[in-house]
Design goal:
- The complex is a heterodimer of chains A (111) and B (119).
- Chain A is mostly beta strands.
- Chain A has no helices and 11 strands.
- In chain A, strands 2, 4, 5, 9, 10 and 11 form a 6-stranded mixed β-sheet that branches.
- Chain A is globular, with a radius of gyration of 13 Å.
- The N and C termini of chain B lie far apart (36 Å).
- Chain B contains no helices and 11 strands.
- In chain B, a hairpin with a 6-residue loop joins strand 4 and strand 5.
- The chains are: A mainly beta (111), B mainly beta (119).
Chain lengths: 111, 119
């Protein structure tokens, strides 16, 4: 089983619609969770950290379910510029600063 | 403030050649990392350096060596390149607060990447 698993997609989303996707992780000791965004042929950039109580940043909402070991990302009112690959990232204690990346979920927002 | 910079941006090598990928950060970060990214796969950690003077193996260290030259710079060396090392290489850095490194991770900031092809 992969340490961090994501549906590779693509998720084809009409502009203005809502899209949500999950990732599952295997290390129950993980303490830090992130969503990164990666545009084609570019470096990953932090989209948002994921906190235990869930958190929102504009049109983006992230949730953490520790019991079932999954993280979710919801994008509301999708924009064309949201088209990208979204990487689910968790850390790996005891070397807490080591991160494991999922393979990414590709989102394509279409007019 | 350039963040994380990498050189070169592109490189083509023949099997058996050697090369060094350079990475530098100007954010005064303690930790630095080297990843590779292959199609359809997530980023995989090659080596990392939790602080100046220390380096540790990641998930896929075979065929690579690293040097943490100083706090700013972290280089990755391929001694004898193989076609299996064709990939996109990313360098990253993070603050890594003292005392939290064992359980928590800070945001990692990535360089623009080096696209390496080994023929």
């Amino acid at each position: 089983r992969k340490e961090v698993e994501q549906d590779p997609g693509p998720f084809n989303v009409p502009e203005g619609a809502t899209v949500a996707f999950n990732c599952t992780y295997s290390n129950s000791a993980s303490q830090s969770f992130f969503w990164y965004r990666q545009d084609c042929r570019k470096e990953p950039k932090l989209l948002m950290s994921v906190y235990s109580s869930g958190n929102e940043d504009g049109r983006f909402t992230a949730q953490l379910n520790r019991a079932s070991q999954y993280i979710s990302l919801l994008i509301r009112d999708s924009k064309l510029s949201d088209s990208a690959t979204y990487l689910c990232v968790v850390n790996n204690p005891p070397a807490g600063n080591k991160l494991t990346f999922g393979g990414g979920t590709r989102v394509l927002v279409k007019p | 403030n350039a963040g994380v910079t990498q050189t070169p941006k592109f490189q083509v090598l023949k099997t058996g050649q050697s090369m060094t990928l350079q990475c530098a950060q100007d954010m005064n970060h303690n930790s630095m990392y080297w990843y590779r990214q292959d199609p359809g796969m997530g980023l995989r950690l090659i080596y990392y350096s939790a602080s100046e003077g220390t380096t540790d193996k990641g998930e896929v260290p075979n065929g690579y060596n690293v040097s943490r030259l100083n706090k700013r710079e972290f280089s990755l060396r391929l001694e004898s390149a193989a076609p299996s090392q064709t990939s996109v290489y990313f360098c990253a850095s993070s603050t890594t607060k003292t005392g939290e490194a064992r359980t928590r991770a800070d945001t990692q900031y990535f360089g623009p990447g080096t696209r390496l092809t080994v023929l």
